[in-house]
Amino acid sequence: MRIGVLTGGGDAPGLNAAIRAIYYQAKEYGWKTIGIYHGWKGLMPGGRSKEISEEKAETILGIGGTFLGSSRTNPYKTPEGSKQILEMIKKHKLDALIVIGGDDTLGVAGKLFEDFKIPIVGVPKTIDQDIFGTEYTIGFDTAVNVAAEVIDRLHTTAQSHGNSFIIEIMGRHAGWLTLRAGIAGGAHIVLIPEKPYDIKKVCETVSKRKKAGKYTLIAVSEGVKPPKKLHEKKDDFGNVGLTDRGLAYTFKEVIDAECKIEARIMVFGHMLRGGTPTAYDRVMASRLGSSAVDFLKQKKFGMMTSVQGGEIKPFPMKKVIGKFKKVSDKEYKLLQSLFEGDVK
Ligand code: F6P
User: Fold this and answer.
1) Per residue in 116-135, pLDDT tens?
2) Which of 222, 263, 276, 332 is deepest in the core (most CB within 10 A)?
3) Which candidate, 64, 84, 87, 60, places its Cα nearest to that of 73?
4) Measuring from atom 10 of ligand 1, which residue has the nearest CA?
5) The one catalytic residue among 104, 128, 130, 281
6) Known catalytic residue at 128
7) CATH of the structural domain 144-273, one choice from 3.40.50.460, 3.40.50.300, 2.102.10.10, 3.40.50.1100
8) What mean pLDDT value characterizes the chain?
9) pTM (two decimals)
10) Topology of domain 2-139+277-319, CATH
11) Please, which residues have CB within 8 angstroms of residue 280's CB and are 6 or more apart in sequence?
12) Ligand 1, CB cutoff 6 Å, lining residues
């Protein structure tokens, strides 16, 4: 057997650990692993692939990013795209595919399985942890840890100068990263897309704390509705690019004016996706990678290696399309006492 492996969408710490586990588990079965470069682009005309060597697999465990590279290429964007993928699979003599990605990449994998019955298995990754059908996604733990550590650091500088901070954290559709980093880092206000906020209430809280001689750390998910309209552009999958739209600056404008302060800004951006994966992400990525190979062996095609109740179970990739795992009201309410006041 020759199995192809690709990583699509935004990179996440732990991807290399998953690729390594795929390589070793495939080796157990006497299979060869072919690395496909730059996501779905690698299976389009002009795309690149290369067999993964033991020398390579041995050296990648603790390295962030993905040595295969990634892209947000959508083969379904053109009428001929999906058929080109099929032709490339034949050309590269691939017997099966393992696709590591977020909702868009796994959605494409799900459609390819439905349309052509390609032997394909998915592995969920995204620092946003918002893929429907799985408790865990590769990279989330590292991103939370990095964000929490930086929020910790902001406390000491904020306290020394009495400065308040607006901290913008990635998370396109769901607020998991902002909520968990906000809890772990002790932010005073946490704004997430699932929970509408009233900017006046936010300003009231900041002003109240200021009167009491306190600084305020406001963790804002990039996916919240901006207090002012912002310029937005879309990717191949129709996702609005949130990262560079300057959300934190609009919050600063409004809060500065209302609260008579000069808030400071911290925009994490892609820093949260970079660097060394935590031990937890390495272990989980290894479990998911090995399981993906086992899923292929057991012919669990069209499935992703989801985590449910701590166990790795098959979940149909077609069910991932167009849905997101959001922070529940129950979870938010339980933790609300940790934050300053109700912002609604
Ligand atoms: O989906 C992961 C993610 O990091 C989101 O949190 C963020 O909105 C998006 O990717 C950024 O994408 P890009 O790297 O294409 O700007």
Assistant:
1) 999 999 999 999 999 999 99
2) 222
3) 84
4) 10
5) 128
6) yes
7) 3.40.50.460
8) 95
9) 0.96
10) Rossmann fold (3.40.50)
11) 141
12) 10, 72, 102, 126-128, 170-172, 222, 241-243, 273
